[in-house]
Amino acid sequence: MKKMYKYILISGLLLTILTVAGQSLKKIDLSASNELNGFVANASTNLLLKQSIPLVSYEVCKKNDLLHKEFFTSSAAVNNPSKIELSVKPEDGYHPGYKAVLTFKNISQDTIWLTNVVPFGFTDDKVCLTGKGDHPLSRSYLLRPGFEPVNCILPDNAWETGFSDITVNDTLQLSAITRRSRENMVKAVRHRFETEIAPGGLVQYNFYADFHKGNWQEGLRLMFQERMLYDVEPGKFDSQMLEREDLRWIRHAYVSHLIMAWNGIFYDDTDRKFHLEEFVKRGKTLYGGDDFIGIWPTWPTLGVDHRNQWDLFRDLPGGTGQLKLEAEKLIKLGSHLFICYNPWDESTRSENHTGGMAELIAATHADGVVLDTRGASSMALQQAADSVRKGVIMYSEGMAVPKDMQGIVAGRVHNALYYCPMLNLNKIIKPEFAIFRVAEIYKEPIRREFCLSFFNGYGTELNIFAPGIPEWAEAQYRFLGKIARIQRENSENFTSRAITPLLSTTTDQIFVNCWQTATKTLYTIFSLIPQGYKGDLFEITPLPGMHFVDLWHHEESQPIKSGTKWLIGAETDAFNQSWLGTNNEGAVDCIAQLPELITATLAGDELSIHVAKGDSLRIWAGEPDYQKSPLTLKAKDQTIWLTDHFGRFEGRFVVQLFEKDQLLDEKIVSILPGTPRLISRPEKTEVAVKAPTGMVKIPAGKFKFHVTNGDEFIPYPKENEGKIFDMPPFLMDKFPITNSQFKQFLDNTGYQPADSANFLKNWIKRSFPVGQEQYPVVYVSYEDAKAYAKWAGKRLPTELEWQYAAQTAACNEWPWKQKQQIRRAEEAVTNTLTVFKIQGIEKGRCQTGDGSLYPVGSYPKGANPYGLQDLVGCVWQLTNDLYINGSYRYILMKGGSYFNPSSSWWYVQGGPRELHYRQFLLRVSEGFERNATVGFRCVKDL
User: CA 829, 834, 840, 841: dihedral to nearest 10 degrees?
Assistant: First the structure.
């Protein structure tokens, strides 16, 4: 096709354009040579062009010779009428917009083909829709300046449609279509894209045009959605069927199967059992299950005997009663049973078609009927179904053309279009009309089929009539599941009339459709770039209170300012280049602009969530997937502990907010693998009226938390470092718990640990050695200590509490005030390990690490200002703080101990330790962690 006839529209019109914007085109000023000179708006405002342009262009060729077409414009046809004589007859008073009838008459001596009639002349500097190539079924392409053409699906009565959109000035566009008249042909034969005209024959086209605001996509919406390609008189479309409440469920359906009755999935004659329920349950784990399943017991066996199509249903195993049971099973699984109707069944046992169908629907409780060979339904069929059961869907084999959408709510993109065109313009006409692409997974991998259904915002029907279950089927189903989840959770967007196809992109061969509602915008992305794509892709408008989320990868997306524009990025997977041109090519992404309704804050293991609205929350460990279940909660402000629900999982947690199963917002929080998370809970004791014997009061105060540690091959927690805390008052044991205190606990409770290995290993038959009454109890586990504390009406201190009580609000490094500065011999061993050998602690303050345990209270000069003793150099003291980091769990201990190995750097650094020093006690089992250097003291709430 030649690209010629450049034109320039005037940028400053003779009369102000502001009086025209939003008004309708009343008249086109045509020259005698069918050139467009200007326009008249319905306010009688004249708009003149600086340079005339043709009303249309078109192409002519000999019959069956599309490779040698000749290009003409309407003006050239007047000046050189060697093949076609074109006449233009405006229709006076037409509204809305402008209409003219174009008559193309063959004045040559040869039979010719007329094709590609395009408004305003086909040129390479404007958007237009026309034919390209010689494909017999899908030759329609949308051409955009600077981009490769995009193959399109049109209504079955409109494949020859031409479309064009031109800029008048900064605020006004003009959009037009050409439609072939099916009635007004003389000595002519209509083909899908061409009209075959014999010598002296003619064909007429209707030309429609009108003004609009916005870009070319708004012109496409005007002609396809508002004017419905003039298939129905504008404003006269009857939406009653589409708006029926009982039929609306189908517009939110996205996955279905059509199964022949002799498929073992339905019924297996070897075990004489139905397996449809098993099939649907398995499907729920792969792609969320089927919204409906159609059963087909007729063709290719119908006609073997006199039984008609309804008889074959009645003769299925168990009859219609069993089909009803199967339908009820499907309903419980969120699915529906469809039966089939073969209108061509006229030679078998005579039975009224509508009556037979109604009787079968009533007997089986079917929720839909697949209309074989039909592109539309009829009032008789729908009324027959309505007479016995509400909510029964008529589901046509082909797509209903715009005028037929008044009588049916669902249809199919037929698999006769085997390598399916990329953009389905039918979706723009009536977004609430339910469309399903027919795909055959058992022939070849068909990722492209799923991708394009997603890109175009509609469902997929898996037609598994062909036999065989290939090895790739499950992987393909999983891919479909990822797509179906996004479709189902955002179906209000995919049925919204605010569709903008083919946004301009920074890179060709990656395509973006936009789907808007009042509260949310979705962008579906389809890529033909085999190496994958990652980068800024298309222009967006950031809005206050909104944010962008990549729903395919479940990641936050940040807009980037580029000059005066904002761009949003996208990422698509790579695929094998050999897949190009096959039904397995392509990759997708999905970006959403969502209202910020969730605030999700992660602190260690605690996830705090605030929501503004909605009815439910779903929290996923990793990406949402039909093979796993989320934590589902009511939509309210709350805090949860992640390990309670997700164990040791580390990585992304996807937090989703829903209302009636529609996604409102999504936030992603992440835990870097290896990050320590506090999983022990804050506890409270019964409030003490006065301090029990052996406890001292720790007053309230502000405390700046700072900690140090030794080897960090296994990371220590960092989230509280440097924070200032308001500490409430509480009571703490003056000394670590002693043998005599623990013996009293055992005698009173008969306590037996679940794991008794090394329990009180230094005792003999549950009695401590003579003379060691006041020694700190050792060889106890975290669980042993907590059991004692609970019995005593106390609890273990948190690390923060222990350190505050030990350091006081003054943040002392040691319990006492040193007269001389303590020295540290520092030596870096590895990147994670630095050894500090402490020197200069005054005598009488604490045990300095000679390896001998001693009775508590032996170093009164080592007491801190609150009167706490044996804080350092006695035993490592357990805190309540239990951490997990994916691979490990550990308890934090404080104070150092009496034991200080010195022959190697790699040992735990013992001896007396600074009050800010921490040491983890790695958990294997209770028996493993019980040892001779670990004890505890308790606290109690005031």
Answer: -130
